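Lecture 7, part B: from sequences to assemblies.

Below are the input chains for today's worked example.
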Amino acid sequence: MIDALGNPQSLLVLGGSSDIATATARRLVQARTRRVVLAGRPSTRLDAAAQLLRGAGADLVEVVPFDAEVTDTHGAVVDQAFAGGDIDVVLLAFGVLGEQAAQERDPSLAVRTAMVNYVGAVSVGLHVGARLRSQGHGVLVVLSSVAGERARRTNFVYGSTKAGLDAFSQGLGDALQGSGARVLVVRPGFVRTKMTAGRKEAPMTTTAEAVAVAITEGIRSGRHTVWVPARLQQVMALMRHLPRGLFRRLAR
Amino acid sequence: MSDPARTVLTGWGRTAPTSATVLRPRDGDQVADMVRRAGPRGVLARGLGRSYGDAAQDAGGTVLDLTALDTVGVDAETGLAACGGGASLGQVMQAAIPLGWFPPVLPGTRHVTVGGALATDVHGKNHHRSGSFASHVRSMTLVGADGEARRLESADPLSQATAGGMGLTGIVTDLVMSLRPVESSFMQVDTTRAPDLDALMAQLEAADAAHPYTVAWVDCLTGGRRLGRGIVYAGDHAAPADLPEPERAAALRFEPPTGLPAPTWTPAGLLNPHTAAAFNEAWFRKAPRDRRQQLQTISTFFHPLDGVRGWNRLYGHAGFVQYQLVVPFAEGGVVRKVIERLSSARAATVLAVLKRLGASSPGPLSFPMPGWTLTVDMPARGRDLARLLDGLDQLVADAGGRVYLAKDARLRPELVAEMYPRVGEWLELRSRVDPHGCFVSDLARRLGL
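Predicted structure of the full complex, as structure tokens:
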């Protein structure tokens, strides 16, 4: 259960080896979280994340194979995660960035990005939503992105997948209204992680740790949307309404 | 995906909402039927929702609103009251006082059901003399996990596990309790100010020796010399001879005020360290230094907060937590440490109450034990409060004390066994009477009960 001060006891991470997920899970384990299910593609990184959480004080860390692209397995993965008891927080943290130029040359690469970031998230998100509804409580945290707020020339494939994911998550949150469960949409700007390593940093670049803090505070406060850093909300409110030509030149 | 039958529930502190299917049985047979039909996420009784945390919620399950089982029958000769499990202590007062009888134990509000009072084994200002609620319950009808109603005498182990058992042993559809005789609906109240904690504790101890009802308000925001200053209230039931002439004719008249509603919306930061300190200063100064034998109505003395309907809304959107601890008399120093930490954390405590408890009840999960009990309300704001209260839990557990589960909304589950050493015995009995966990609550899930 999530207690009166916003501390959950159990966590399912979808995309368990992501830097943001690991940082978030560690913060939650340092508070009240004792049971963690890490779902992701089997890798040494995933095992290392599990080991790190055990060291941080989790009583039970389970690793479950999960592939966002293989949607017909999602029901079974979610069932397995919930078989050990209620899950208070589900963190949907998987996603790929892809190379925009390569995606334009080879559309199959763009399709893969869309499959993982959008189709996979829709599939597993609906499975999770049904579970949270029937248990009558819980928070689904969805890692969206400012890139979904307005498509940019330099990463519009990725941006469009996040736009779809963001819209889906808002709708799922509305569908869960009154069920005791809710959806928290997290919109970070450029985050310094392994996914973005080597890329040119944008203004207001943030860290996985800062996103983790925003997520745990978002769970606590009951908000439905958080931006990281928070002032991106105002910046994007402006950017969204800039004339197209001006935005194109600004956001190169 | 819509499910219109679900209702979102919280406790009185308005934190940690979850949803359940709420049903309203009209009699014991319907209760039994609903228990038999309970789904995989179980069933739980709920009364008037005055537990502060998640004790009366069952996320995804079935919650039985028992308030339709509200019959009250008082035998004017014997002083025995037969009550439906959903009857409130306020209803008992209205039936009993005109006949010259009074509930044996009253918590800080009359808006609690007798079933809830038993499930949390409530105590009142007379605990040092009269013990907890369960010690005045003679018998009860308990609907078990098999849907069978059983009549239990108070000495039955299942009856004792139900007293303080947080509703997890079954559903009490009716009970019989013994009332105490009274001659009027007035109290004679002594009020004394104490300049610091040592004086407050000494005055409270002295008051316990002389009066059946005692309690102290304590200021948890002042520090230094004035740390733990407060006001001691001590009461006795007034005799007709104590009343002014016009009141004597109707000495047993009881008309509780309906109260004024609190505003439905309040700004989030209304109760902050500054407003709380200002309130506490005014509250302390307005109290008389030393006033003897002032006549007060029962409602004024026992239930001042019932005068503001929905006062829990004053804490705003984020809600609040109430923290109640008890430590043995020998560990009274812990009370000072707790107040020091609350004061230096500026935890915006307005309603803080100190009381000396008497003997324990036989219930394995019953809260009261001989010692000092301190109760504080705080706005439910964030990580710092979580750390502060975790620290207080440890102080309390190390001193051999405990926190009250009816108030709890955030205890670390590992501490339950330390604070309630007989929890193993209780769990064993419960697994025998309810092997599949039919009766379950959010509190039970959170604490592993």
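Note for the exam: Residues 382-398 of chain B form the longest helix (17 residues). Keep this in mind when comparing with the next example.
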